[in-house]
Specification:
About 30% of the residues lie in helices and about 15% in strands. It is built from 8 helices and 11 strands. A hairpin with a 5-residue loop joins strand 8 (about 255) and strand 9 (about 260-265). Helix 1 (about 10-25) packs antiparallel against helix 3 (about 115-140).
C-alpha cells in the first residue's frame, strides 16, 4: 500500500486516525483504563523520536487453580511483566518512543488447555491489548510510524491487532513492521486477511517478521503443531527459503536480565536455516542440553525462550534498517 507522504499535516493524520478507530471499535465508549499512566509498563509520550514502538509483553503470569488471566493489580506479576519487557526493549527503542501496556494476559496454565478452551482467556487478553492500542492511536501516535512488536503471547496479540485494527488503510500505512517473534502465522491467514504481508527481505516495510527456533530433530511443538506449517524469515540472512546462514553471520547472541542489561554476549553463537516442512527456524550450533526449554509446555529442543536472545544483535540492526527504509519512502 502507498504510504502517507512527508508533509501531510499531523492534524490531518490525527483526524484520519480517529475516523479509523471507528473500525477498531473503541472511540465513543467508556473511558479507557489506559488513560491512566499506571496501566502502562512504558509510556514514553514525552520523548522525541521519529517513530513509536508498541510492544506487547510475553507470558509471565503462571496462573492459579481458578485463575487463567493476570490481574492488573497483581504487583508480583506486574514486576515480572516489566522485567520481561526490559529484556527485549533494547532491540527496539534506539530511535523510537516506547509504549508497552499492562494487560490481563493469559497465564501459562491456559496453554495447558486444549486450544478451543484456551481461546476465551486469550480473547480477554486481547480486549485489553486492543483497548490500549486504540487509546495510544487516538491520544499519542499523531501520525508517527509504528513498529509493532511482541514475543510469544505478545506476538499472538500483535498478529490479532494486525488483522483487526490495521485493516484500516490509514493505520496500515503507519506500519514499519510487525515483529511477531515466537508465534506462528500461516499462508492461509495471509489469504484471509489481504492487508497482511509477510517479510521477504531485510528492508521491506509494512510486513510481518516472524520465526520460531528449534533443534533439527523437533517435529512438534505448541507453537508449530505436527502437520502444520508456519511462515518464517531467517534473522541471520533475511531469507524465507531454506538457504542456510552460518554462525559467522550471527552478529551477537545477547542474554539480558530483568533490568534490560546484557549479562552475556556471544558473537557467532549459532547459524540457522528454515525447515521447508514445518517452517521452523532450525538452529544448528547449540544443543538442547546447553539451552533447555525452561517451561513444561515445551519439549527438549524447542528454543522458544531464546528466540530473541540467540539473534539479538541481528534483530536490533534490522529494526533500524526497516525504520530507515520506511522514512526514506516517506521522503521520496
Amino acid at each position: 500500500m502507498k504510504k502517507m507522504k512527508k508533509g501531510t499535516s499531523a492534524r490531518f493524520l490525527v483526524l484520519l486516525l480517529v475516523f479509523a478507530l471507528a473500525g477498531c471499535g473503541k472511540t465513543g465508549e467508556q473511558p479507557s483504563v489506559y488513560a491512566r499512566a499506571e496501566s502502562w509498563a512504558y509510556l514514553e509520550a514525552e520523548k522525541t523520536a521519529d517513530a513509536d514502538v508498541f510492544f506487547i509483553c510475553p507470558t509471565v503470569y503462571g496462573g492459579e487453580e481458578d485463575s487463567f488471566n493476570m490481574s492488573m493489580d497483581d504487583e508480583d506479576a506486574r514486576g515480572d511483566f516489566l522485567g520481561a519487557t526490559n529484556m527485549e526493549k533494547g532491540i527496539y527503542d534506539q530511535d523510537a518512543r516506547f509504549f508497552a501496556p499492562y494487560y490481563r494476559q493469559a497465564g501459562l496454565n491456559a496453554y495447558e488447555l486444549p486450544a478451543e478452551e484456551r481461546e476465551e482467556y486469550l480473547a480477554l487478553a486481547y480486549e485489553d491489548v486492543k483497548d490500549a492500542f486504540t487509546y495510544y492511536l487516538e491520544h499519542y501516535n499523531e501520525g508517527r510510524p509504528i513498529i509493532l512488536a511482541g514475543f510469544s503471547q505478545g506476538a499472538d496479540m500483535s498478529i490479532r491487532l494486525l488483522k483487526d485494527c490495521f485493516a484500516e488503510e490509514t493505520v496500515n500505512d503507519l506500519l514499519v513492521a510487525c515483529y511477531a517473534i515466537g508465534w506462528s502465522i500461516s499462508a492461509e491467514e495471509l489469504a484471509e486477511y489481504p492487508h497482511l504481508r509477510f517479510a521477504s527481505g531485510a528492508d521491506d516495510t509494512g510486513v510481518i517478521v516472524s520465526f520460531n527456533s528449534e533443534a533439527e530433530a523437533v517435529a512438534d511443538s505448541l507453537v508449530i503443531p505436527a502437520g502444520t506449517r508456519t511462515l518464517a524469515i531467517n534473522p541471520l540472512n533475511w531469507k524465507t527459503d531454506g538457504t542456510p546462514a552460518g554462525k559467522e553471520e550471527n552478529l551477537g547472541a545477547c542474554f539480558t536480565d530483568y533490568s534490560g542489561n546484557i549479562t552475556a554476549e556471544i558473537p557467532q553463537l549459532t547459524g540457522a536455516y528454515i525447515d521447508g516442512l514445518r517452517g521452523a527456524l532450525k538452529v544448528t550450533d547449540v544443543t538442547p542440553e546447553e539451552y533447555p526449554p525452561g517451561l513444561s509446555i515445551f519439549p527438549d529442543g524447542v528454543y522458544h525462550l531464546y528466540d530473541y536472545q540467540f539473534f539479538y544483535r541481528n534483530l536490533q540492526e534490522n529494526v533500524e534498517v526497516r525504520l530507515d527504509a520506511y522514512l526514506a519512502e516517506q521522503a521520496a
